[in-house]
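Submission sheet (multi-component)
Chains listed below:
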Amino acid sequence: MTASAARTSRRKRTGNGAARRIDADEIGLDALVGHAGYAVRRFQIWIFQDFIKTLGDVDIKPTQYSVLTVIGANPGLSQMAVAKRLGIERARLVHLLDSLEQRKLVKRIKSKEDRRSHALHLTGQGETALAKFKRLAAEHERHVEEKIGKANRERLLQILAGFT
Amino acid sequence: MTASAARTSRRKRTGNGAARRIDADEIGLDALVGHAGYAVRRFQIWIFQDFIKTLGDVDIKPTQYSVLTVIGANPGLSQMAVAKRLGIERARLVHLLDSLEQRKLVKRIKSKEDRRSHALHLTGQGETALAKFKRLAAEHERHVEEKIGKANRERLLQILAGFT
DNA sequence: GGGCAATTGTTGTCGTCAACAACAATCTTC
DNA sequence: GAAGATTGTTGTTGACGACAACAATTGCCC
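Outcome: structure written.
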């Protein structure tokens, strides 16, 4: 049916149609190639793994990094505002902030304007730590460049700019 | 510090530095813009949601679709081969196939060459169903085109071709 | 050719994460 | 002031990846 059915293999046993011993890279994906979602999913897995590995020493994962970055750039934000901006549920953000607060990177300050909400700030430690995280994140970004090419990375960011 | 700190708001109360009432779209992302991983993650969320919605009537999710497509294009594959090719763990694939087999889309046939393994095939129902799924998936792909542009989608697939 | 390592499918556990629902405290609105 | 909305919190559920253990079977090695 497809081209892959005619390929050879380490232990070929063609003819009866049953199980041949084949390698993963000779399996045809057929319609799957040409699906943006599939390519994006695989790429996203790769990129997250590299991020986690590159920031492994400081134990910061992508979501934590995004939270710290947004708070650093917008001190005093409420949890609701951060959650909405990053597309995180506020229930999830609670635990994320619990962890970051325990590590003394972030502090929740009771707002006086709205006593329901917390104004989020980086601690002193948090600021210097974030600076280091950003350096490591830049290193990770260089890995992306090495993987797909500098120009392609630029183009990718341009294409997906509407989703930030 | 950042430009966003000087912006206005619905209920501005600048000066004391505490909580202002601000909208999500006026929060600066600072360093987050320019991170490929963040853009890709947001895009992937959007694209999966659209896929799930578009294939909602037939209740097929992206992973199920990828499994059916690979089996359809390579009949007789073992579970191990499918798992390796799609980057799914074989433990996870067990449940996926249980579900697809219950829905009479896929059948596991005991292989005679290697009695440990199962040769995976689509059923008759599975073939006609997959044809329908592919039509819906093509519709989803058109949504992607409308979102980012036809040329950009092509370029995206080209850039990420190495991850399929 | 007999024994040992590797592979395949399966089951189970653990930790992460998104999606909800419910709740108390507080704010907004009328 | 009362009713409804919002904020942070807690808890539950289900999907998912990573791992480990296991039986059945195969491949390999001496």
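Remark: The first helix of chain B runs from residue 36 to 54.
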